[in-house]
Amino acid sequence: MTSPGPHRTRLVWSTEMLGYDFGDGHPMAPLRLDLTMRLVEDLGLTTLPGVELVGAAPAPDALLETAHAPGYVAAVRAASLHGKLDLVHGLGTSDDPVFPGMHEAAARVVTGSVEAALAVWQARADHAVNLTGGMHHAMVDHASGFCVYNDAVAAIRAVLEAGAERVAYVDVDAHHGDGVERAFWDDPRVLTISVHESGHTLFPGTGHPTDVGGPHARGRAVNVALPSGTTGTPWLRAVAAVVEPLVRSFRPELIVSQHGCDAHGSDPLTNLAVSVDAQRRAMGMVHDLAHEVSQGRWVALGGGGYAVVEVVPRAWAHLVGVATHHPVDPATPVPEAWLEHVATVLGAAGPVTMGDEDLVLPRLWSEGYDPGDLVDRIIMATRQATFHHHDLDALYD
């Protein structure tokens, strides 16, 4: 349900967000955010009626401690100030090297997601997007997988504290959303669904179909662990066959989704082959579910994605387009001004259109389960492990 007047989308962004910078050569390059926002602006999405760009100040310790142990927050602050490695807390590894201002940069991301979620929950915005967010690997007491503070956990806890009784978290990053799952493992108020590459071939090695939640929350943790090489059409079938029926059954009051775009075939760190077009379709699925079951309340976060020119800017520009109710046609030419900027800064040629291919839409699950298809067998394993907890039939619903 949309509000009267222009659709209101809160877009978290300021150049201060580029301070989350692990240094030269690290995959989590702030350039990917800079290029994304330049493309979003060149497509005219930031000047649409109802779009509000909002910056974020570093979160205070009390807010960070809704997701993290006080000792860990103190450790991040100390490492940030003094540059000392603290491997007990995961600070100073190759994934999470220490850098000056690390605490403030990571805490700023948390503020962005928490304030976005509260704005949606309190009907000050219809949808919200924080492309700098989605730091889904950060654990209660240590950094992990390029993630220092877990903004998604803090955002969900904020709306629960504000009165929400059911929140769904949908994660389509190529990596398992382990930090968010762990935080809500035994909390029946939160449904976490992660569609990712199998932990047998990709970090963090977790997220198996039989991982279904704690004793008070069976079926609230849901994992679709796809094989290396999965392409866009079967990937979309997995999203539709698991995410859609479970979210409809759970009927969350708000959906938080993480749209790491590292499932793309050009990503240097993963082994899936999901096109920008398929990822755009999944964004639309989540958006439509929010309008169907959550009164339109939707908070979309960024996450992984390391093909800095070819993939990340286009994928996340599509996310902004979907959230603003002005979806970008995949056939749209990439703006010339953006291509010229890429050529000037990187000496590289960028993609010429906003899509990769003509997308072949998957068969609906209701059209039949194919036991000879590996992805179908994986989907079925997830459905069999979780659907009965929601009074759903693994084969038919």
Automatic annotation (TrEMBL):
Which pathway? Ketone degradation; acetoin degradation
**Which InterPro entries does the record cross-reference, listed alphabetically?**
AcuC (IPR003085), HDACs (IPR000286), His_deacetylse_dom (IPR023801), His_deacetylse_dom_sf (IPR037138), Ureohydrolase_dom_sf (IPR023696)
Q: Does the keyword Amino-acid biosynthesis apply?
A: no
**From what superkingdom does this record's organism come?**
Bacteria
Q: What Pfam families has UniProt attached to this entry?
A: Hist_deacetyl
Which residues does the UniProt record annotate as the domain Histone deacetylase? 26-320
Gene Ontology MF: a single term: histone deacetylase activity
Q: Per the UniProt entry, what are the Gene Ontology biological process annotations, in alphabetical order?
A: acetoin catabolic process; epigenetic regulation of gene expression
Keywords, comma-separated and alphabetical: Acetoin catabolism
Q: Which family does it belong to?
A: Belongs to the histone deacetylase family.
Q: Write down what this protein is called.
A: Acetoin utilization protein AcuC
Name the source organism.
Actinotalea soli
